[in-house]
Every structure is written in C-alpha cells, then in structure tokens.
Design brief:
The protein is an all-alpha fold and 475 residues long. It has helices spanning 2-19, 22-42, 47-50, 63-85, 91-113, 117-136, 141-171, 180-185, 192-210, 218-225, 228-255, 260-283, 287-308, 311-341, 352-355, 357-370, 377-391, 395-421, 426-435, 445-459, 463-474. Helix 7 (141-171) packs antiparallel against helix 9, helix 13 (287-308) runs antiparallel to helix 14 (311-341) and helix 16 (357-370) packs parallel to helix 20 (445-459). The longest helix has 31 residues, at 141-171.
Length: 475
C-alpha cells in the first residue's frame, strides 16, 4: 500500500504528459485523491502488515497528518474540476499544472510517511520544487516575485535544517542513524548541548516552511498569488508536513529530558507569529493575504501549544485538524470571490451577499470557524491551550495570547463584514453578476463538507478519532 500511494502519481504524471487533455487530467487527479483517502482509511484494517517498511510507515504518529492531507486533497480535486474549466490556458500548460499538483501531493505524502529525518528533509525540499511552479502559474509580475521569494527563503531554510541534521548526528555520538525510532530509543544518551543547538537550527529551517515568524516572509505573497486550490493545499497541508518534522524532533528533545531551552524558543516564535499577524492583518488590503496571515497566526498557536505540553498536546492536534479543514474552505471560497469580482482587493469587493449568497455564507462561516466561535473545533483547541497556560501559571502569557487573538478577530471581522454586507460598486457588481455562471456546484460542495466536519467534530468527537489524537504525540 505504501508503494502504491507513492508510485501511482508518477505513473499518472507520465500519462498526463503524453495525453495533454484537461478533462483526463482532472479525472486522474480525482482517482489519485480517492486512492489516497482509501489508503489512509485502510490503515485501520491491518496497519502492521500493509503500511510499514524500512523507509516509510503509516502509524499512530502520522496517521492524523496523512488523513488531513487525504481529505483536503480530495476536496481540492473536486473544486479543481470546476475551477479548471474557467482557465483559458493551453492544454500543455494545464498538463504542467496537473503534473506539478500531483508531484506536490506526492512530496507531502512522502514527508509524512518518512521514518527517517534525512528522507523527510528530501521530501520537504521536493515540496518547494513542485509548488514553486504552481505559485508562479499565473505568470503575473506579483506571482513571479512570490515564487522567487518562496524558493529563495525556503532554500535558505532547508539549508539551515541540513546544518541542524548534521549537528544532530554530532549529538547522537556513535548511533549513526536518523531513523525516528532509533533517535527516540537512544535520546537519553545524546549530548544535550548539541541536541539543543540542533533543534534550534531545525526549528528555524523547517519553521521557514511552516511559516513561523520571523522566517515567514514568503508565506503571505505565495498564498496570495497561487491559484486558490493551490493556496488551500499550501495552507492546510504543506504547513502541517513541516510541523510534523519539527514535532518528531521535539519528541526526541523531550525524550532526552533537555526541552527547557526548546520550549523558550517555541514560545518566542509562537508569540512573535501572533504579534506579526495582529499588526499586518489590521492593515491588509488583500483578502487572500488576510488568509495567509491567519495561517501564520495558527502556526504560532501550534508552536505555543507544543511548548506548553500536557493537555496542550491534545489541543495542538485538534487545532491542526480544525485549521486545515476551515482554512482550506476559506481559501477555496476566496477562489469563488476572485472568479466573481476579478480582484483580490478588499475595497473593491463589496455586496457579496447580493451577488452569490452561497459563497457569502461560506465566507462568513469560514470566518466564524477560523476565529474559534463555538462549536468550531478551534474553540476547543484554543480553550485547552488557555487552560494549559493557567494550569502552568503563565498568566501574563495568557493575557497576551488572548489580547493578540482579539485584535486578529477584530481585523478579520471588519474585513468580512465589509466584503459581505458593504455598499457595492455598481461596476464591480455588474462584473460579478456576469461571472456568477462560472461558479459550479463543485466549487461549493467541498467547502460545505469541510466546514461540516469542522463544526460537527466541535460538538461530537468519535471515539476512534479521540484515540488517534491521544496517540499522536505518544506514538
């Protein structure tokens, strides 16, 4: 099953390369998305027999991340069927788009399934190479700039992570292994100084890919300029893949009992991410950049929850699930708005409720979900994070946390209300009404499904999901 999920996209890419047919591209993407999801669900049947080998495995540590990728990918593939019909590019360019999309998903899948830190590092670099073209796809001045910034900054980050891996081999002494299980089993014998230095390099290096401040600079531009289905994948899945690598190394630091310094660095980067989001979100003029800064905020929350430990470990996995589902819906809905109004400028997008009620309500509900209004899954995760701060007597940090989240909530609420209910420009309104025919059912359905999951899980958590979440950090 591992080989099937990793080799299938390569075969499909070869077929696309020779066929150069838009409809076939969409069909093959959907087939792989279904296979990807079936493989994840198949884990619950015979995980030991089907999903383990020397280099890759699907286990309690990564099953949540894999299933999130599967669900978001299938939602994006459905949305892409309607989205791609509105693109007027040549069959050759659409083939490039579809091939790179599959290679991007393949790279993320490989990084999640990797048993080895070195192998995960290679696949993380692969995500950069595959997604750079997708960011550049529209070939505008801003998209080219965003792609170059993405490649440049993430390449520096991946180089820092490589230095961190080298330092980790120094810390482990004679072990000579980067296998996660070997690192965990032998962590107590590691040199604490070199392990701490190694963690800082890996955190800053892979944190670049995750979008943690102060190494987040590529993210607002890339997410804003990429096609909306790609923005959804970048925010809802790629950032998770990077976080999983950091989480696996943090487990080693915890097992070595030298996590005090690592916690400080995580706290600093986490709160800095919230602060930067609060500052820039207040003045943003582009609604896709608004969503990008929201992703930086949520990655900061993950860093804070990781540093807190205890009940916050449960909160961070819930937060990953909730953020991925809601942010994917948010970015896909932004694609609808862009199709309607043909602009990303907030002040040029008014009266959405009068143009397309379904997209307007998807936009509103996505806002409520991402800002943790009950019963959003993010309400539970942020509530547990605050509870962990109070239990550990981090009172000042708790006040700062809530203060920054309030500023972020206000900034997003102001933008959403203006876009949905603001006084509309007659010129833009006429353009939007003319474009309403471009929005097909497949460009509504994925968001409805994703938001339903995010809010239902906030009310009722099935036992099987609860067990998986609890086993993720232990695993």
């Amino acid at each position: 099953m591992i080989n099937l999920v990793l080799l299938t996209p390569i075969v499909l890419c070869i077929i696309m390369f020779f066929a150069k047919n838009k409809n076939l591209n969409n069909l093959l993407i959907n087939i792989y998305a279904i296979l990807h999801l079936i493989t994840g669900l198949g884990y619950f049947l015979k995980p030991l027999q089907l999903f383990n080998n020397q280099y890759f495995s699907l286990n309690s540590s990564n099953i949540v991340f894999y299933l999130i990728l599967s669900v978001i990918f299938i939602a994006v593939s459905i949305y892409n069927c309607g989205y791609s019909k509105n693109l007027t590019f040549s069959d050759k360019k659409m083939m490039h788009y579809s091939v790179m999309l599959l290679l991007f998903v393949l790279s993320m899948t490989g990084s999640i399934l990797s048993n080895n830190l070195g192998l995960a590092w290679i696949f993380i670099e692969g995500t950069t190479l595959a997604s750079a073209y997708l960011i550049y796809f529209n070939k505008t001045k801003h998209s080219i700039e965003a792609a170059w910034k993405y490649v440049f900054i993430c390449s520096i980050g991946i180089a820092l992570a490589f230095v961190g891996i080298i330092l980790l081999t120094v810390a482990e002494g004679n072990l000579n292994s980067l296998n996660y299980s070997d690192l965990l089993n032998n962590a107590e014998s590691f040199n604490h100084f070199w392990l701490n230095v190694s963690f800082v390099f890996i955190l800053f290096g892979i944190g670049t890919k995750m979008g943690l401040a102060p190494v987040h600079f590529w993210l607002p531009d890339a997410h804003a300029e990429a096609p909306s289905p790609i923005s959804a994948l970048l925010s809802a899945t790629l950032l998770n893949c990077a976080f999983l690598v950091i989480l696996n190394i943090y487990k080693v630091v915890v097992a070595a009992n030298c996590f005090a310094y690592a916690k400080i660095v995580l706290f600093v980067m986490g709160f800095l991410s919230l602060f930067i989001t609060a500052v820039f979100l207040y003045h943003t003029t582009n609604y896709k950049r608004m969503l990008a800064y929201s992703s930086i905020e949520n990655m900061g929350i993950l860093a804070i929850a990781t540093a807190l430990g205890g009940i916050a470990y449960y909160a961070l996995i819930i937060h990953i699930i909730g953020h991925s589902l809601i942010k994917a819906s948010y970015f896909l809905s932004s694609g609808n708005i862009l199709e309607l109004f043909e602009t990303k400028r907030i002040k040029s997008t008014r009266g959405l409720i009068d143009v397309d009620k379904k997209t307007a309500w998807l936009w509103i509900v996505s806002f409520l979900g991402i800002c943790a209004f009950p019963p959003s899954l993010l309400f539970i995760s942020e509530f547990l994070t605050v509870k962990a701060m109070l239990i550990q007597k981090h009172y000042i940090l708790c006040v700062l946390f809530l203060f920054l989240l309030t500023i972020i909530l206000y900034s997003m609420a102001k933008t959403v209300i203006k876009m949905v209910f603001g006084e509309k420009s007659e010129e833009k309104f006429e353009i939007a009404k003319k474009n309403i025919s471009k929005i097909t059912f497949s460009m509504y359905a994925p968001q409805i499904i994703l938001l339903t999951f995010a809010f239902v899980l906030g009310i009722y958590m099935p036992e099987v999901i609860d067990i998986i979440i609890k086993n993720t950090f232990v695993g």
